[in-house]
Amino acid sequence: MSNNVKDIAVLVGSLRKDSINRKAALALANLAPASLRLDLLEIGHLPFYNQDFDADAAQTPASYADFRRRLAAADGVIFATPEYNRGVPAVLKNAIDIGTRPYGKNVWSGKPAGVISVTLGALGAFGANQQLRQQLANVNMRVLQQPEIYLAGAANLFDSDGNVAVDSTRDLLRAFMDAFAAWTAPAAVAA
Description:
The protein has seven helices and six strands. It has about 190 residues and is an alpha/beta fold. Strands 1, 2, 3, 4, 5 and 6 form a six-stranded parallel beta sheet that branches.
């Protein structure tokens, strides 16, 4: 990555092929300023975290090692999450746990993070968004506070190709990306 372009890993908490959170994540990538390059990092293939896997390096799944290496190289992370039963999907929580282990090797620590939540329902996945923010603070990530993004009733926000179909939503996502770019800038990191 060029010194001027930040490498941002994007984790989507929904495994569904036609996920609206995936569509929102792809929209963020398209709306990102030139100073950021977003890369969706798949997490559905990661086995559930088991500390026994890390007791012996020979037992650590290659998918864990690859995931941790990719995150360690990232300049920041954006999370796009739905809400399952008022909380974060298990696949996303599992990815967070894998990134914090083995003990003392937390790949999340100190990285800037952004959170958006997208749902077909009326509450914009508020519960999952807030729960995720709490978890990210616990793993020592610097979470962008504003603008907060809770996209509710998202069935009509994207067209059949996954493009943002509503101008105000596009403006909101662009503002989020601009704020995230400023959040990851060297002056913000030093603060």
